[in-house]
Amino acid sequence: MCWLPKALRSLVGSLTEPPEPFPYGGHSPRLVVDAGRSGLVPYDSFAPATDRYEPGLSQEQSALQYCLARWSSAVLTSQAFLPEGLRGWPALVLVPATGTNRLVSHRPDIIKRDVLVCIDAIRSYIHSAVRGLKGSALSPQSSVPYAIALARSVHLEVEDPPIEVYVEVLDGFKAREGKNRYRKEGGRKLYTLQEFIGLLRASDRPTTVMSFRVIVRLADSPYLKEALDFGFIYIYHNPQKDQPSAVRAEFRAYEGVTGALGKEGTMRLALGTLHLLEPALASTYQALATG
């Protein structure tokens, strides 16, 4: 796995021309279901006993491993994990891993670079899933008509907002006042990335953000915001359930969805939504990398 950071470092060395999806999308895509205490179950052998389960896609040795080194999860959502003012439009949310708050406080400029790396890694993950599951009854590409049909049943009136990177500070900042003395400043607040960087750089004492998450409003893509009205995609690695090199994209449906759609319908919605995300991610990457 030593090739992965080196290859990604070369990718982010130049941000003037957005590349095609990064080639390390992963391999051996598997359809799985997180059945809670029962752990991960292969999709084909899963028999729902309740409506509480989360279907998903698992792939090994993908570039998302590098993204998840600093971020515990990447969430693609239009409702969950978003502050009220940003709900209703598709967004990528990066939830930091332990220690990332200190790194970001010292080098807030790495946020944009990591956003680009994670977006590109998600794109390559999707492309690898399309290739790996091509021809099967359930694949991202073949599930798009199902997801669109469901999306057409939803009517949303949302203005198309500009692509923007935000930092939501959840618990204020910690400013050093002396040796082993700190003072808490501020509280929960939403900043643009530039406002957040400016705030940290303008401080006259070492300042650390306590807890936060990064939110990227995505470019428009037909039917995406409607599909995300049924649930959100949660990308992560669970060391208790996943193989050591695996990353899972899990669909977490909102209340009543799995009961209404059933096992196959929920998986088709999950895979179709994943495929609908690709053009939005591609346009967002290009806008951020050249803007």
Instruction: Compute the average pLDDT.
Output: 88
Kindly report how far apart the N and C termini lie. Answer: 32 Å
* Gyration radius over CA: 19 Å
- Strand line-up across the major sheet: 2-1-3-13-12-4-5-11-6-9
- Count of helical stretches: 8
Strand content: 25-35%
Unreliable parts: 1-21
Please bin the fraction of helical residues: 25-40%
- The total count of strands amounts to 13
What structural category do the secondary elements indicate?
alpha+beta
Gross morphology: globular
Tell me the number of structural domains: 1
Order of helices and strands: HEEEHEEHHHEEEEHEEHEEH
| Largest beta-sheet details | 10 strands, antiparallel
Q: What can you see in these coordinates?
A:
The protein has a 10-stranded antiparallel β-sheet. Strands 8-7-10 form a 3-stranded antiparallel β-sheet. The chain has one domain (54-290). 35% of the residues lie in helices and 26% in strands. α4 crosses α8 (257-290) and α5 packs across α8. The protein has helices at 3-12, 64-70, 100-106, 110-132, 144-151, 193-202, 224-227, 257-290; strands at 27-34, 40-42, 54-60, 71-77, 91-96, 164-169, 173-178, 181-185, 189-192, 207-209, 212-217, 231-236, 246-253. It is built from 8 helices and 13 strands.
Task: Based on the model shown, name its key terms.
291 residues, alpha+beta, ten-stranded antiparallel β-sheet, three-stranded antiparallel β-sheet, 8 helices, 35% helix, globular
